[in-house]
Each structure stands twice: as C-alpha cells, then as structure tokens.
Amino acid sequence: MQGARAWRCRGLLLPRTAPGLAASRRGSSSRDKDRSVTVSSSVPMPAGGKGSRTNCSKSTPQKVPNRLISEKSPYLLQHAYNPVDWYPWGQEAFDKARKENKPIFLSVGYSTCHWCHMMEEESFQNEEIGRLLSEDFVSVKVDREERPDVDKVYMTFVQATSSGGGWPMSVWLTPNLQPFVGGTYFPPEDGLTRVGFRTVLMRIREQWKQNKSTLLENSQRVTAALLARSEISMGDRQLPPSAATTNSRCFQQLDEGYDEEYGGFAEAPKFPTPVILSFLFSYWLSHRLTQDGSRAQQMALHTLKMMANGGIRDHVGQGFHRYSTDRQWHVPHFEKMLYDQAQLTVAYSQAFQISGDEFYSEVAKGILQYVARNLSHRSGGFYSAEDADSPPERGMRPKEGAFYVWTVKEVQQLLPEPVLGATEPLTSGQLLMKHYGLTEAGNISPSQDPKGELQGQNVLTVRYSLELTAARFGLEVEALRTLLNSGLEKLFQARKHRPKPHLDSKMLAAWNGLMVSGFAVTGAVLGQERLINYAINGAKFLKRHMFDVASGRLMRTCYAGSGGTVEHSNPPCWGFLEDYAFVVRGLLDLYEASQESAWLEWALRLQDTQDRLFWDSQGGGYFCSEAELGAGLPLRLKDDQDGAEPSANSMSAHNLLRLHGFTGHEDWMDKCVCLLTAFSERMRRVPVALPEMVRALSAQQQTLKQIVICGDPEAKDTKALLQCVHSIYIPNKVLILADGDPSSFLSRQLPFLSTLRRLEDQATAYVCENQACSMPITKPCELRKLLHQ
C-alpha cells in the first residue's frame, strides 16, 4: 500500500546487534547470506510483483477455526482456518508469552496484499509450520489498517535494521514487545537465494533457548537507539525554518527526480503521489511568474495526464490501481485503494481549476463514479479496497489482473459491428484496440510476467490522442469519442459476468474522511450538488457509526454486516491521529462546499479532542496514537513522512491554519507554529519527504485569505459568488458564508462578520487579509479578478 510495498519480496532482516543470530546464519551458503535481505533484487518485477498464486479461499469446511474466527477484520478472517494458534493483538497474547517465556511472532498485513496471501497459503496453511508457530511461539496476527500504530512501530524497526520493508511484515518480539528480528515475506522452504520460513523459525527457537540473555540485551539496545532516532521535538528552536528556502529545496529535489517523458518521480515501480502533485500546484501559484513556477505546473499536469492515459487507470470501470510496475504507467498492480481514489479526485479537480481542461474534470468524475458504484455502503460509508487478484473463471485459482485484462479475441467478439464513415474497413473492436494498444500477442512484457500468467492478455492504455486516431481513420473527433465510449461500456457490461476481486468491506474513519473531501471538493469545483450529497452522506455515516458522543472520540473501524447493517468490534477500536486529522479535513472541505455550519462545529469539537489525546505539550506536534491505547509498545511515534497518504501531522498543520481562519482562536495558530518547529530538522534536511508539511509551512508564513460571502444561501446571486470562488485554485483560504444572523455559529466566532453588509441588498463578497477587508464586490467577474491578483 505504501511505497514500502514495492520492497515486499524480502527475507530475514537481522539487526547488526544480534551476533548470536548472525552466527547461526553462517551455515547457509554465501549466496543465501548475501541475498537474505533483498532476495528478489535481480528478479524482474511482474505485474504487482507477483508470481503464481493458489486458490485464496480461506475457509476449508473440514478444518477447525482458530480464535481469529471471532474477529471482524477481513484480513484476520482470512487466517481463521490456519492450523496456527493465532491470537489477535492484545493482553491475552502478551500474558501467555510472559507466563510461558516464549517469543512472540508478529505477522502484520492487510486483506488485499498479494504477498500476504502467498505467505498464508504457503506457510500458515502448512501443518508442520503451524505446529512450530503454536508450540514454540505466541503467534499474533495484526491488520495494519486496523492498528497503524503497531504497524508503524515495528516497521520502523524493520526499516532501521535493513534496506527496506513491506508487507507481510514478520517480526519476532520479546514477551515485553521489544523486537529482536524482523523481515517481510518468507517462502516456506530454503531456496538457492533465500532462507525459508521453517528454517528461520527453527533458528530463532534455538537462539531463544541458547542465547536468550544476549537477544534481550540486543533488543533493549536496538529499542533505545530507535527511541532516540525517532524523537521529533522543538528542542531549543523557537520558530520553524524559512518557507522560501524549504520550498525551493523541495522543488529542486523533485525536479531532479522527474521523468520528463512519462511524468512521475521514479523509474519503476511508479506510484501516484498526490501529496507531491499538491505541492507542485501550490509552488506554481506562489511562483507563477517564474520559470520554476511554470515548470512545477507542467510537471504536475503532465504526470496527471500520463497517469490517466496509462494502464494504472481502469479505462473500463474507472478508478485507479495502486501503482505501475513500469515507468510508462502501463502495467499496474491491480489493487484499488480508497485513499488513492480520494486524493486523486482532488488532484484532478485542482488540475481542472488551474488548466480549464475538461480532460481532468472527466477523470475526477470517473473516479467518483467508481467509488459510488463499487466502494460505497448503502448507509453512506466507504469501503477500503478491492483486491488485485480474482479467478479468470469460476472455480479457477485467482490470478492478478484477471478481472481487468482482455484478449484480442474477446474484444473482437464483443465489438463486431462496422464503423461507418471510416476510410478503410474497420470494426468497433479494431478501432478500440488501435486506440488502446491491444495486440494479438498481448501488450504485457514478459519481464513483467515471468510466470506467463498474463500471456496474450492486454491492459488498456491510451496510445494516441483522439485527434490522431480520428485522423488515422478519417473520423470526426466527437464521433470517435462516442464510438470509444460505447465500446468501453460494452466491455464493462461483459466484465460484470467475470468473478469479482475480493472487496475489503472494512470502513476506516481516516479514509472515509479523505473520501468526504474528495466528493466535497470535486462537487464544489464542478458545481454538482449530487457529488456534495455523497460527501454529506459520508459525514453523516461517520457521525452515526464511527463517533462516540459520550466521550467525543472517533472509532477507527466499522464493518459491513449482513443485510446492509454496520457492525463494530467489541471492544471498539478507537481512532488514531490520522482518523481525527483526515476527518477534520473532510469536514472543513464539506463546510466550504455545503455552507452547513454544523460540519464546521463538529470539526472544531474533533480538533479539541485530537489536541487532548495526541498533542505533545513538551516537544510539539502530535503523536500517532493515544498514550493508553499504545501502552506496552516500545515507541510512541510521530509520523514524519508524506507517502501514499499525507502524514497526520502535515494534515493537522493545514487544519489548524484553517480553523484559526474560521474562528480567530490564536491557540490553534500557536499549535501550528509549534508543530512546524518540531519538524524543522526533517523539513530542512529532506523536504521532499514532507511535501504536504512544506506546503503548510508556506501557508503559515503567507497570509491566509478569509473570503466572506454575505447573502441568502438559497439565492442565485449568492450561489454565483460561491461558485466563482470554488472555480479558482486558492489553497490558502477559508470560505465563509455570512447569512446576516448575529447569533449564528460563525458570527459568534468572528465578531467582525457583523460589520460586513450586503451592498444594495445583493449578495456581496469581501476578501479579508491581516484583519483588513476589501471593498464590497457583487459581481463574480470582479471577484474573480481580485482573487487572481
């Protein structure tokens, strides 16, 4: 799911401070020793980094379920029939480890993770390996999406003691939860270039018996080093770094890694990086008269266009896959994640605001169409993901991409009708295949498919512009567009009859918050109430099913039950920092889109709860987890990287600035400054690791615009001024509707609103900065001109 996922084909990771275990490895061949960490580094990455896979059905009727059968997590339930004495993360497992003096084997993954499926099938279904895990270890299974705190702590250990990380994550802990050995995916048996899981278990078992005191000492030493290394604090610093310098350095680092031809910022695998695109748009806005500013805009727009034309986008059913296995955005890892859809729809909406090119708005609408159709609970919530793998036909074992790829024969049979008016004999199928690059032999390189599973198959990817394809066959552009859309619709209808990929129907507060933002922002930009209503229903779902009124706390998860019901784990899984930060962001965006102040009021209350539960009053910034919830974990971290999702501290910095703009409360501005100061060193050294926080730093050191519209919310002239604001890319602003009621929530927060009047009983706009407001404006064209200055 994160960038680390590209490294998931890893073996045993041994801290340099574990000599006993290191010695035990000397019996293996030199090739095993040399390749034990990066066992697949020279193997071409296939689609999704995978080889073959056996049937992923997890419930065999004749087997007896283990205690995971009582869990709600789809990932844990996938392991409920393993011959392993699995425990969920919790006190029962820890007490058993201490009472029996056994090491803990911690296995962390998620339900749509291919290599998690592989290890489950190869190792956790193996009776002998199951006995080893049950007799010599206390085996604990964790869904990383349910417990991001557990995942972050032990992934920090894995990455610190190796060259990478990924999922499934395999870590061995002392009974006091301190890690001493870590790895990711292990094959069941020893191979030419890697140590097998059975061997690893036996070696650790022997070392625990013979050298336990050394292991414990080394574990304490490594934990202490990680604690020092991971500390993020203001220290002696009083202020954050210069935004101008940090911005420039971040842009230069991105410019150096930019792919001129295909867009994006790596060779392969290549990930969509909405936080980087968001930074580039902001950089363009503040440098738009400079060469670097133009360059930043071009980098972001080109990347978005190449992604949308590539196979990483599902041209038949819409939405985006997780990442591309190649530089060209052609062959994806086919998993679809909610957080990608949420962030990318905002990125494409912003691209439309900036460029005016409807290509980008159409992509944004397509993403939301996919989410509404495939990832939406009928009560308004949003599911987490769809798997990459599915059976090509019922009863067959799942293969990656089977649901999404096509043969030439299939397309020809579905689209046999002739194209009228073409300059040569042509069927609709031939036209579609030419435009989307389908070939008889398949368009997937053997280097991306070493097992031959995708032989003869094609991933749709736009090879030519509409204009070029139309000219090639003597067609009008609009006629071609209609023909292609009709063809894609027929493929979509045919695809409905294929076995569907597994749906992870878990609902996470954080990702639902991101999706509320996606619908709200896109609906506001495009002026589509229907999309804003999806955001409203999403927020209502969060308040109804994922919020505890008595304590004011968010819950992390809920689950789709039978008959459209919503279920919760017992006891509930309480929210983490990212849940609060992302939901607050969604509510602020929803207020600006809907102008319903109830969402803003709830955002303020959640921010107060976030401050109470997670704020570090000594060092500044927010911890990722509550102190009580993470009790027993060796580290309490502050996430310091904007990756597949923005870090919760980066998001919180923006939220605090916006809340200050909505309320005038200085406490939130003070917190924002403290947060940015705490992360100063990280931003100064590697700003490209925190582009979303660098963007917040710039916003904090610039002047936030308070755009106030005085008018009747239902009046046409009010709506025209609001839509004018929504149509313009202005990231550093708050949009406030003043309806003239002095007792309203916002009037109580910002007394100056009562001094702003409608001009001649018309809806009137004011742009306020530094406690001074512009002259009143009643015409959208004049407001647009002022906002573009």
TrEMBL record:
Coiled coil: none annotated. Residues 52-63 have a biased composition (Polar residues). It is found in: Secreted. One of its GO terms (cellular component) is extracellular region. It comes from the Eukaryota. Its main location: secreted. Residues 18-64 are annotated as: Disordered. One of its GO terms (biological process) is carbohydrate metabolic process. SUPFAM superfamilies: Six-hairpin glycosidases, Thioredoxin-like. Keywords: Developmental protein, Differentiation, Secreted, Spermatogenesis. InterPro entries: 6-hairpin_glycosidase_sf, 6hp_glycosidase-like_sf, Ssp411, Ssp411-like_TRX, Thioredoxin-like_sf. May play a role in fertility regulation. This is Spermatogenesis-associated protein 20. It comes from Physeter macrocephalus (Sperm whale).
